[in-house]
Amino acid sequence: MQRTLLRLLRFFPLSLAYGLMGLSIPFYMLFDLRGFRASYRFFRDRIGRGAVHSFFSVYANEFRMGQVVVDRFALYAGRSFDLQSDDMPVFTRLAEAEPGFMQLGSHAGNFEIAGYLLRSVKKMGTLVFSGETDTVMQQRATMFARMNVEMVPVSDDMSHLFTLNSILSDGGIVSMPGDRVFGSQKTFSCPFFGDPAKFPAGPFILAAQRSVAVVAVFVMKESVHRYTVLVRQLGEKLDPELPSRVRAEKMATEFAECLESVVRKYPTQWFNFYDFWK
Amino acid sequence: MKELIEEIKAQIISALNLEEMTPADIDENAPLFGDEGLGLDSIDVLELIVLMEKNYGIKLSSPAEGKAVFQSVAVMADYVSKNRKK
């Protein structure tokens, strides 16, 4: 099925693919009630929309999610997208400097596309999670092999931690999500849309311990072929003499602030379909 | 060796922000991970990897190595004394 999709997307107009995908969304809304409820509550309680507006926002949210997935496959199929950004000097400055740095993604927008389109001569290690299909993993591997990107799977024996640490100490880039708790259950409680939410401590502790720069990267869909890349450097004003755990927590709080401001601007591109505030 | 053990205990307390603990609270022979001893987890491993690299110039590159070294403070101290580069 996914291979067929890849073949079709080589020549199939993207807008037509989106249109067909959009037809299936009411079924998802009907049968994935848990996802529907989480998304609906997000628009009602966090964004403050009315009941009807929230219902249609759930559709728009699912549609955006579908577009992001189609775009990923379109990239695997060899298509390209225009990236526009006023923040590229931030990324370029860090990419051209000697020390390694971390780039944190999120469940907002299409973070994966950043790995394929943000070019750097530095080696990049990107954390990947199990659960993707073989086709997706093969396509990712093919794309990444061309770009000096190493996939680092999360593993029970913690080997991913050694690999990520080694990439950073060799001056490379480590790319991972900043809003997904995995492996260690250690979290920082950060204000997010009016209530405390749990953010993973790991990425921020790694950055603080190694004293490397951290950027939050958001790749947001604007139109069929265009994305906007937002890059925000975290912890720039932090006192380096503070204990690393304190610096880590402050960076996590800053990340949550950045994420909230981006999600407020692009509410239908928030793809975290569970109760983040539990 | 006793001095090195105390030094490592202090570094662990500082790195992991264990404000409520003193070096005397840490049994050097107790396991660092799991329910007994300090009960550290994977994020703490990360801190210990960086601690070893920054303070002693020891680069641990595999989980097997880490597992062997991070058994207890005493084992860490023994490994540091034999492999330290600074």
Order of helices and strands of chain A: HHHHEHEHEHEHEEEHEEH
Rg calc of chain A: 19 Å
Low-confidence runs of chain B (pLDDT<50, min 5 residues)? none
By CATH reckoning, the class of chain B would read Mainly Alpha
Task: Name the chain pair with the biggest interface and residue counts per chain.
Answer: A-B, 22 and 21 residues
Order of helices and strands of chain B: HHHH
The description of the largest β-sheet of chain B is:
none
Profile the largest sheet of chain A.
7 strands, mixed
Ranges of chain A where pLDDT stays below 50 over 5 or more residues in a row are none
List how many beta strands of chain A DSSP finds: 9
Discrete helix count of chain A: 10
Number of helices of chain B: 4
What's the total count of β strands of chain B? Answer: 0
- Beta-strand percent range of chain B: under 5%
Any idea how many domains of chain B?
1
How confident overall, as mean pLDDT of chain B? Answer: 86
Distance between the termini of chain A: 36 Å
CATH architectural type of chain B? Orthogonal Bundle
Give me the oligomer status: heterodimer
What spatial order of strands do you see in the largest sheet of chain A? 1-9-8-2-5-3-4
Give a structural overview.
The complex is a heterodimer of chains A (278) and B (86). In chain A, helix 1 crosses helix 4, helix 3 (33-46) crosses helix 4 (51-76) and helix 9 crosses helix 10. The radius of gyration of chain A is 19 Å and the shape is globular. Chain A has a seven-stranded mixed sheet, sandwiched between helices. Chain A has a two-stranded antiparallel sheet with strand order 6-7. Chain A has helices at 2-9, 14-31, 33-46, 51-76, 88-96, 111-117, 134-145, 159-169, 202-210, 244-265, and strands spanning 82-84, 101-105, 124-128, 149-153, 173-177, 187-192, 195-200, 213-223, 226-234. Chain A folds into two domains: 2-76, no CATH class; 82-269, no CATH class. The mean pLDDT of chain A is 88. Chain A is built from ten helices and nine strands. Chain B is mainly alpha-helical and 86 residues long. Chain B is globular. Chain B has helices spanning 2-15, 42-56, 63-69, 73-83. The A-B interface holds A 157-159, 161-162, 165-166, 169, 183-186, 201-202, 205-206, 209-210, 243-246 and B 14-17, 41-47, 49-51, 53, 59-63, 66.
